[in-house]
Write a structure and sequence with these properties.
The chain has nine helices and eight strands. The chain has about 350 residues and is α+β, with helices and mostly antiparallel strands. Among the domains are: about 35 residues, no CATH class; about 30 residues, no CATH class; about 80 residues, Phosphatidylinositol 3-kinase Catalytic Subunit, Chain A, domain 1 (Ubiquitin-like (UB roll)), CATH 3.10.20. A five-stranded mixed β-sheet has the order 5-4-8-6-7, covered by helices on one side. Strands 2-1-3 form a three-stranded antiparallel β-sheet. Strand 4 and strand 5 form a beta hairpin. Helix 2 packs across helix 3. It is rod-shaped and about 160 Å long. Keywords: Coiled coil, Cytoplasm, Metal-binding, Zinc, Zinc-finger. This is UBX domain-containing protein.
């Protein structure tokens, strides 16, 4: 809000507000308000000079017209002297006196009063106590407006902060949902690959069983073809358990120690910024699953990087990403280092 508009809102006429700002060199509302209170009863200099000039012009024209005009009669002069002179404007609804038309218009706009008339009463100038009281009232209005503006600014700042926090939470929630969707896709892909691998093993096992059955059928067919040529039944050799000497000479073969099979692989991943991630994968999962896990944890999903082991030092190739973790020797525990793409 401009200074002149603020002075008008306080009840000062527009012309006087402009004059006060002009005299005080636009140094602020307070100085202009002090000038207005100090010169409340003084007329505006430009208006008085213009009135004097117009009056002088009228008198000169009347003098030039000389013989055309006639002097008023004594009776008319006496009647004019007896007529009351309007010294102010009065509001018929509240009885308040005004000096100028601008004050009347401002009062009408502020109170919605519409009945005004001329009055012979003269608006008395403000006393020092009234000036101080009006100044204190204006200062109180300014203080309230300043307080309301500060409260509104504080509310707007709180609302902006609330919207910023809400947008941040929404972004975190959207990112979390995206990671969940990516992990779900990864799990579905792992399940699908595991099912395809199981189906492939079942097909190989069925093929092996079919080959074994075919060999047994072939062997049984050869034995039945040879048996009719012999005249005596071929006696089968006695079982080894019936020979007492065989029990002492034969030795029981030593079974080799079975290698322990692991179903999970605990992988510690050292990122390029020095942080370390630990995740457990299935032993049959491909190394590509570890790479996808690292991509989801990085800021840029499209960032190019590689994986390597330190002991022994080995950088995995593109073909090895398609191999399972147990085939790469990364079970039950392993440490992988994220490196820049070659």
């Amino acid at each position: 809000m401009s200074d002149i508009q603020m002075l008008i809102d306080m009840g000062f006429p527009k012309e006087k507000a402009e004059r006060a700002l002009e005299v005080t060199n636009n140094k602020g509302v307070e100085q202009a308000m002090e000038w207005l209170l100090a010169h409340a009863d003084e007329p505006l200099p430009p208006a008085s000079m213009a009135a004097a000039a117009s009056a002088a012009g009228d008198s000169s024209s009347s003098t030039a017209a000389g013989g055309a005009t006639t002097e008023p009669s004594t009776e008319e002069g006496a009647a004019a002297a007896e007529e009351p002179v309007a010294k102010s404007l009065k509001c018929d609804e509240c009885g308040k006196l005004f000096k100028s038309q601008e004050e009347v218009e401002f009062h009408a706009a502020k109170t919605e009063h519409s009945s005004f008339s001329e009055s012979t009463e003269e608006k008395k100038p403000l006393t020092e106590e009234e000036k101080k009281a009006q100044l204190a009232l204006l200062e109180e209005k300014m203080r309230r407006k300043r307080q309301e503006r500060e409260e509104n600014e504080k509310k707007e700042a709180m609302e902006r902060e609330r919207l910023r926090i809400k947008s941040g939470k929404d972004m975190l929630e959207a990112r979390r949902k995206m990671e969940e969707q990516e992990m779900k896709k990864l799990m579905d892909q792992r399940k699908r690959e595991k099912l395809e691998s199981q189906q492939a093993r079942d097909r190989v096992r069925a093929q092996i069983e079919a080959d074994r059955a075919a060999r047994k059928a072939k062997e049984s067919g050869e034995t039945t073809a040879v048996s009719p040529t012999s005249t005596a039944p071929v006696s089968s050799p006695p079982p080894a358990a019936a020979n007492p000497t065989s029990t002492t000479t034969t030795t029981t073969p030593i079974k080799p120690a079975e290698a322990k099979s692991y179903t999970t692989a605990k992988i510690a991943i050292r990122m390029m910024d020095g942080t370390q991630l630990v995740q457990t994968f299935q032993a049959g999962e491909q190394l590509a699953a570890v790479r996808l896990f690292v991509q989801l944890k990085m800021d840029s999903v499209d960032a190019a990087f590689g994986l390597m082991t330190n002991f022994p030092k080995k950088v995995f190739t593109a073909e090895e990403y398609e191999m399972p973790l147990d085939k790469l020797g990364l079970v039950p525990n392993a440490v992988l280092i994220v490196t820049k793409a070659p």
